[in-house]
Amino acid sequence: MNTVLSRANSLFAFSLSVMAALTFGCFVTTAFKDRRVPVDIHVSKVMLKNVDDFTGPRERSDLGFITFDISADILLMPIMR
């Protein structure tokens, strides 16, 4: 007769096998879908400043600011086909 630890080990191994099969099934159903959606990117403002760098001895560093707009219609992407 098997001990409690042996039965727990068998149950744990079986549940891990089931979880691995479910994970692989989820991967297979979603890995090869076409996920392209229309995206628009517009840069509206680019600014470059030369500022003091307080980490080094009397050096200056460039600091860049970019403002851009991203528009994407992600609701077009179907969840289930």
Summarize the structure.
It is a single-pass type II membrane protein. This protein has 81 residues and is an alpha+beta fold.
Q: Structural class given helices, strands, pairing? A: alpha+beta
Q: What is the helix content?
A: 25-40%
Q: Order of strands across the biggest sheet?
A: 1-2
Query: SSE order in H/E notation?
Result: HEE
**Which blocks of ≥5 consecutive residues have pLDDT under 50?**
none
Number of strands: 2
Give a quick account of the main beta sheet: strands, pairing sense, barrel closure: 2 strands, antiparallel
Average pLDDT for all residues: 86
Count every helix, treating DSSP H or I runs of 4 or more residues as helices. 1
Q: What's the alpha carbon Rg, rounded to whole Å?
A: 27 Å
Portion in strands: 35-45%
Please report the distance between the alpha carbons of the first and last residues: 49 Å
CA-based shape: elongated
Walk me through what this model shows:
One of its GO terms (cellular component) is signal peptidase complex. This is Signal peptidase complex subunit 3. It is a single-pass type II membrane protein. Belongs to the SPCS3 family. Keywords: Endoplasmic reticulum, Membrane, Signal-anchor, Transmembrane, Transmembrane helix. The protein has 81 residues and is an alpha+beta fold. It has 1 helix and 2 strands. Strands 1-2 form a two-stranded antiparallel ribbon. Strand 1 and strand 2 form a beta hairpin. The mean pLDDT is 86.
Secondary structure topology:
Elements: H1 4-31, E1 39-53, E2 59-72
Antiparallel strand pairs: 1-2
Transmembrane segments: 12-32
Family: Belongs to the SPCS3 family.
Organism: Crenichthys baileyi
